[in-house]
């Protein structure tokens, strides 16, 4: 099972959509009985620590294709929504006005302009001592990063980002044709012919820098798309994504 959240204003919120692992036919989830336990499982699948909100009634817009899951009943401890009881794949008495949305718990997505734009307990609210003060951070200028293809040829290969010193791969979670088009146009091509999951052109060796990338397909750069946050991932290099432009 593949899972994604779309149509939110930030990467950690949106309409919940699912697809079979070997396909690219995405569908929505009905809000019947969907609660925080179900949302927690969905958010953990996306690499977040949990969920903070569930929204019924297509708050993030109505999907256009199938409704694949309904009457989900998770305890909250499952690893996948597929591990939870539900009505059956494609079995639903809902319409898209009942598409469910979630907000996953993520202090920062990595796309904010300020720490004040991230979720936090409140100004001065903490359970820390000064022994836990952040000592320092090392910053990169994102304008220095660019997309390259590795392990293949001039128009195909493993998607990586580099600043000329460090390299990082992109996880294949939720990666589809829209994301592949953005990569290929960023490289100067008209678009993509195909994308491939599962490290088709070999596994990278550096950091996995992007996961759960969601593009509309119109962005100028992969860095303009929503994602889990820079370096935030639950993937291994066996999930490095590749494209053919």
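^ Assign residues to that structure.
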């Amino acid at each position: 099972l593949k899972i994604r959240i779309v149509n939110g204003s930030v990467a950690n919120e949106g309409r919940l959509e699912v697809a079979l692992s070997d396909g690219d036919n995405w569908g929505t989830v009905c809000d019947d009985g969907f609660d925080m336990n179900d949302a927690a499982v969905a958010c953990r699948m996306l690499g977040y620590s949990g969920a903070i909100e569930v929204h019924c009634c297509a708050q993030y817009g109505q999907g256009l294709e199938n409704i694949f899951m309904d009457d989900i009943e998770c305890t909250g401890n499952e690893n996948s929504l597929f591990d939870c009881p539900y009505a059956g794949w494609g079995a639903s008495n809902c319409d898209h006005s009942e598409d469910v949305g979630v907000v996953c718990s993520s202090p920062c997505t990595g796309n904010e302009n300020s720490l004040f734009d991230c979720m936090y307990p409140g100004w001065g609210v903490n359970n820390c001592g000064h022994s836990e003060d952040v000592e320092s951070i090392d910053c990169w200028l994102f304008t220095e990063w660019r997309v390259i293809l590795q392990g293949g040829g001039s128009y195909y290969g493993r998607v990586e980002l580099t600043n000329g010193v460090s390299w990082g791969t992109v996880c294949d979670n939720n990666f589809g044709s829209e994301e592949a088009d953005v990569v290929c146009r960023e490289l100067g091509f008209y678009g993509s012919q195909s994308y491939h999951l599962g490290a088709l052109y070999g596994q990278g060796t550096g950091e996995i820098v992007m996961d759960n990338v969601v593009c509309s397909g119109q962005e100028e750069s992969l860095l303009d798309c929503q994602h889990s946050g820079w370096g935030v991932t639950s993937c291994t290099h066996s999930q490095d994504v590749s494209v053919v432009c």
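Residues 2-104 form a domain with the Mac-2 Binding Protein fold (CATH 3.10.250.10).
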